[in-house]
């Protein structure tokens, strides 16, 4: 499984557009992607800041999500709203989260160029210090 947390800062005045895009993305992701475990958006305390928690059965499923028609179809509206985006791989603390530990997957040799591009743009890696704390 792969879990990621995105911190997103949007341009002032783009809140309504951003939230409309995220509602579309949420619906499309949950209705078409069988391997999604968590995909949800949150408003932050600071104006214009949002968070997205993404969790997929495998790293490859995350990259498939990034390459999906609905994600790519909303990309221009998404990009028009974004001032900054920080995507961090996170590891659920076992016993304090229902999600399984984050694992890193690899692409098959026959993966499409589009999927390979997503893997390059959005690498998923384990922080070594996590391993000592996993049960």
From TrEMBL:
Q: Give residue ranges for domain ABM.
A: 1-72
Q: Which organism is it from?
A: Candidatus Seongchinamella marina
Q: Which Gene3D superfamilies match?
A: 3.30.70.100
Print the organism lineage: Bacteria, Pseudomonadati, Pseudomonadota, Gammaproteobacteria, Cellvibrionales
Q: Which SUPFAM superfamilies match?
A: Dimeric alpha+beta barrel
Name of the molecule in the record: ABM domain-containing protein
Q: Which domain of life is it from?
A: Bacteria
Q: In this record, what's one Pfam family? A: ABM
């Amino acid at each position: 499984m792969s879990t990621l947390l995105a911190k997103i800062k949007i341009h002032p005045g783009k809140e309504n557009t951003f939230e409309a895009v995220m509602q579309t993305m949420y619906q499309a992701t949950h209705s078409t992607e069988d391997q999604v475990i968590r995909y949800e958006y949150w408003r932050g305390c600071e104006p214009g800041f949002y968070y997205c928690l993404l969790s997929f059965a495998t790293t490859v499923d995350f990259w498939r999500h990034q390459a999906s028609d609905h994600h790519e179809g909303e990309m221009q509206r998404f990009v028009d709203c974004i001032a900054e985006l920080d995507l961090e791989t996170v590891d659920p603390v076992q016993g304090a989260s229902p999600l399984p530990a984050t694992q890193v997957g690899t692409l098959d040799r026959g993966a499409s160029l589009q999927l390979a591009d997503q893997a390059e743009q959005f690498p998923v890696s384990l922080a070594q210090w996590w391993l000592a704390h996993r049960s």
